[in-house]
Amino acid sequence: MPQPPATESLAHLLDSADCAGPIGLIIVDHGSRRDESNVLLLAVVESFRHQTGLSLVEPAHMELAEPSIEAAFARLVEQGAGRIIVAPFFLAPGKHWNEDIPELTRAAAARHGDTPFQVAEPLGLHPAMCEVLASRVAKCVAGSGS
Length: 146
Known about the structure:
Elements: H1 6-16, E1 23-29, H2 35-52, E2 57-61, H3 69-78, E3 83-88, H4 95-110, E4 117-119, H5 127-141
Parallel strand pairs: 1-2, 1-3, 3-4
Helix pairs in contact: 3-4
């Protein structure tokens, strides 16, 4: 039997989660001094909201740009989130995933009644990444990529 798309599985899982209120999601990237890089995260969040039907999804930049993890955390708590998942929009684990993002999130949680949170793994070696990479290479081979 085929598996439902991950977005459908996620919506079902969040609906059935046992916590004090809905689960909120922060999608966090590094942040940049270049606006076009920061705008990309807004598009990712909008696409994720649309594909999953989830409404409690906020963007955040770890540094260099707003909104911060603290600001995104506060918005989710104001919207009634009882638990928050921080999903790094990073390829690999490193200092930001191991230290910086958990510390920034811990500080935000402390300012909001110690709202429970978790930090998801970075994108890493997920099988879909090979498909994404293959599509980028194919675009170059076809002459439409740089």
